Description:
- The complex is a heterodimer of chains A (about 625) and B (about 700).
- Chain A is an alpha+beta fold and about 625 residues long.
- Helices cover about 20% and strands about 40% of the residues of chain A.
- An 8-stranded mixed β-sheet of chain A has the order 25-26-24-23-30-34-33-32. In chain A, strands 4-8-2-1-10-13-12 form a 7-stranded mixed β-sheet, with no helix packed on it.
- In chain A, a hairpin with a 4-residue loop joins β23 and β24 (about 420-425).
- In chain A, α6 (about 290-295) crosses α7 and α8 (about 430-440) runs antiparallel to α9.
- The two termini of chain A are about 50 Å apart.
- With about 700 residues, chain B is of the alpha+beta class.
Amino acid sequence: MKGAKISVLLRVCIVWMFINLSITECYASNDNVIIQDLFNEYIIKEVNGQMTQVKNNETMVFLAQRSADKAYAVTSYSDDITIDKASAPGTKPMYLQDDDEDVLFSGDRICALAINLNPNKSVKATFQRTYTKPEQFCVVGLYSTYFVEHLRTIIRVPSALENIIKITPVRLKDGMKFTREERGNEIIYTVEATNLEPYKYEKHAPGVALIAPCLKVQGYFKDVYDLYHYLNKRISYKNERTESIDSLARLLTNGKDNVYDKIDTIASWVRQNIRYIAVENGDYGIYPEDATVVLHKRYGDCKGSAGLIRSLLRSSGIDGRFVWLGTKESIDCDWTDFPILSSGNHMIAAAVVNDSIIYLDGTMRYCPAGYISSSLRGAQTIVEKNSDECIIDHIPDVNIDNDTDSLFAEIKITEDKVFGRLYRCFKGVMHHIFCDAYYDNKKSKQQDILKTYLAYPKNATTSFSNIVVNTGADNNRDGSIVEADFEETASISRTTNALYVSIYPIKEAFLDLVDLNDRLRGMKISFPHRYVSHIIINIPEGYAVDAIPMIKEVHSKWFDSTISYTYSDDSKSIVCNAEFRTKEMIVNNDELKSWNQDYKNFMSGNQWRLVFKKQ
Amino acid sequence: MSMKKLVFLVLIGMLGIPISYGVPNKKFFKKAADKVWSMNIPEFNAKTQIPDSLATSSSAVIIALYQNADVDLIKNASSNRTEEEIISRVMVKILDKSALDYFSTFEFDESKGKSIKVAGLILSEYKSAFGARIYKSDGRIIDVDTNEAYPVTVGKKKDYTTSYKLAIGGLEIGDVLEYFYYDENWVDEFSIRPIRFDFMKKYPTLSYVLSGDIHKDLTIEYRSYNGAPEIDFSAPNNNRRHFETRLQNIPASEYGKGLLPERQNPFVKMFITNFTARLEYHPATSRNAGVYRNLMTGTVYRDILTLLRDATYESSLPNKVLNLTKDFVKQHPDADATTIIDAAWLALNYYNYVDDKDEEDIWLAIMFKDIVDKLKLNKTASVAFLNSRDDVSTDQLISWRQPDYLCLVDDRYYLPGIECRLPGEIPGKYQGEEGGTFKGDLKATSAMIFPDIIKAPMTTPKQNQIVVNTIASIDGLDIKLQRNTVLSGVEKEKAEPAFYADEWASDIENYLGIPENKRYKSKGDKEEHKKNMIKYLTEKIAIGPDIKPKVNNVEVVSRGITPDKPNVEYNIDCTIEGLISEAGNDIVLNVGKLFGDNYVLTDREKSHRENDYCFDAPQQVRYETTLQLPDGYTIKEGTLDDLNVNVRSLAGQYYTKATYNEENNTVNISVIERYARYMISAEMWQEVVTIFDTAAKFNSATLVLTHK
């Protein structure tokens, strides 16, 4: 979902996990190459009871099992993680910049060794790195994009930090062994594992950060409040109120007495006028740019837009705050579970009114007033209070009814076509997705986009006219509507004495069957949503109803769907009511077969046809 | 120095070495900005009124576009240098969000320069600058600070900057953005790369100014292609020749299906040659200083002739090919001359691949001519030149560098490549194209010889077809398919991504009878390639975005590379879900989806086309499907009526026929989609639409089955 333009706040600490996957997954696309031995050692250095740096030694022993091949050993580095050594026989390291697609500039870099492998001859690659900012050493991934025969990861903690550093294994797989051993002046934490399946790209699979085993390293921050001090200290409050901000705030709130109107207006203005462009190199990964600068530039990342909303609120006499949180797509824990930098990846603003906290995400361009995007719902937040104190809160969940895609149509049938007028209304996340698709395209292509939304599934037999669209994007409305006259022939199958009509009442469920061949991971439903349709089908002249589909209900772990057909009161038409509603968002790997069955069951009901017999 | 070695040297040099890391070169940026912003070009007026028709229908309007090329020649005792200054300046009105996003960020080249060093000598340097400013509707002008650009670097310690990324601060819908790229390059003892001016624009363009000043001692050879405006040079003044052209109101154009950009999009191509440069090849017949517009093709042909006369090579390939061909002849004593020459051609391409030679087409053509001569089979071999429709036609060449080279043996065309193609087969986009060949012993005389004009033969739809035979059966709500697919002629090109070069080499080894112990040891992973092949061939039969076949088995019968196996042929067994729906006591099968995923034209595509529509070659697809009905079911009366379609147009035909065989309880469906011409003129676009539309609609065709 492009709408969730999440700036990767605090990205550096978890960079190893993401870099290793994103860069190497294309390389590790076959199973000819494996890692026989993957060894990682992290040595925590200490001075006067404080972590000062972390040394990392990594070796990977690659093997081409069947035929000559190329392996890519890749590691990440940045301004805060240095590469001290990178070597493998017959190759020289390549040092490259590695920016995400959604980030203009991050400063993230990779060091890669391209290794030519002869069949059945092992080759060892070695990296040595130093974390110069130890607070960024907080997660160690226990996986690779290659199959790993043997994995061994060691974290060496000086005895002086024994009661400070806490190593927690998370999601260890069966057979993974985690041990703690005191040896000399060190505490040694070890994970050993054998035969680990690779983490490769799989369509609809949850991100590795949510499912891969890892070790979490706590201790740099005493607790979440200590972490807050660290984050808050890095914010420059110097230019949070300037004349340009004050005058804009006056302009926006002029004539508005209601505090909620003011809040909505300010948040909406920022969403509409501040382009999302992320610059996250170095400290920009952590602290927001000055609100005045963001306003002047008219662009910023999540921190920039949050800072501007906060400043505009404050200029308007409303208690604006910064909020740190982790989005559900990428973060697997609460701040209080693990008070470490990698427990968050996003910043928004909040308005505190009479002790209630109103959360405001500046990156959701078409976010309706008061709307909370699905990726934020339920997330634990650190809400700024003052330089010493913060509030730990949770973003409230939102009823899925707010994310409804609805269709209303009244259709008429002749022997060769179905026609009528249809209305499609998008709310919540569906509104955001629709507006993004509509406005991201050149004007010359926008009509095609509308037709795509009106005609799902896409086929060649549908034509539209009198299309009217009202996105409400300019005034932050809570939904958008597209309506059109339509005419199409594909829904009708004719025989000598009967017409078979397909209504396809659930036009778009954003779901798919999963190919179970070689599937290693489960599936994640992209976002929670609901689809409802109400379709009135006029019985064609000269025909009588021969068969209408039975009520079809599918109640699965992941969605509920109901499709029903009933006669209208005057018996001149049939009314189809359908609803589809997502539930659990994650399908585990061992549940995929059930998922496919449930999905097919739903689809079969969606495809049922009405039969009209010639009189 | 031979031409070949020189070409090699140039290629090595072109890799380029960035000089340094850091922030943009302030001094150079200032120089560029001072120069560009001080240019008084009347078209660059931010207050230009945008016509209402454009303002409402366009996301952005280019108010003015200026492209200028100044090329100088510096000759002295220590250098023979061509210096080039290229300016590209754009003023654009931002009208909506999509344009705002599009113009929000820029990436520009490193400013401190990249150099090309050979044997310790710096032979080239390249510097680039960028600048931008915003015109607000209230009259303010905001200069964009390029020092805010972020360096994209390589090297352990960010040793080298390769480019910069810059976000345009303060830009809003309704603003006018003006930006420029400014490049300074020089090359010593080489010529600069050709300059190209394109007239196809993403956004409507109110004014386009292109101009330049070229040193009078340089050779300027240029041509306007595809209706691009003609450019005139002035007489030399202060050692410079000046050109300038002004255009107004260029509409926006979009790339789309069935286009040939080099044959349809207007552009001007300009070769600017330092004919005294000593580190590159110049045919003795090439032109000295001067302006040469729309060169007579004969002039370029003369250069090609000179090139072929000058060409010498040192390569082990010809002898290896001759030895292998002799072995082939021993194994096939009855082989005729064409079969032997075909074998030699396969051997040449084979060794070029397995020995990792990677020779260019011209060298393979020259070597093959020599090989054929040495085989003494009473056949006439000659090197020929030809272009595909992805390039300019050979009657519009302005340089010997433009055409592709091949070998012609009598009237048989040998085009290099590792593809699903037999020796002598001509790729679709070369068919029907004209080129030339020089016959005889070119080195025997220095006299001018005119090339024989050749025309690559065109094939028919029947020679370029996909034939799909399918036995289908219904199992519950699934359909099981046993499908045999045979691709011939040009249509084989569609299967090429499924195969990999080592399989190609293996087929040739089998055909040429290369002993096991001398065969190429494949570096690739066969199992992995098989997975990719299955995936690709499966996708080829995947039907619609929501329906994916479950593949039970894929078997490749042949890859269409060697004369004994001329076609690509494969079998697939698969199961498809989701095509059957229930309807009371009957079932409805969306049978149309068994006949390809036919392209659905948008309304916009249907209603408007400016350029001719081009296929690779005349072609057809033929489906023969036998559907076994489930026990206890028969077809519903009248259900076959809509499955019989026959639409003919000047572009081709879409024909379907469905019959019920009561005895076997089967439905037989034949589908033929045929395009008889490789090019359909834009005026005849609706003739193509008719066929495309019919084919796309047939994807929705259904069959109703009922209990007996």
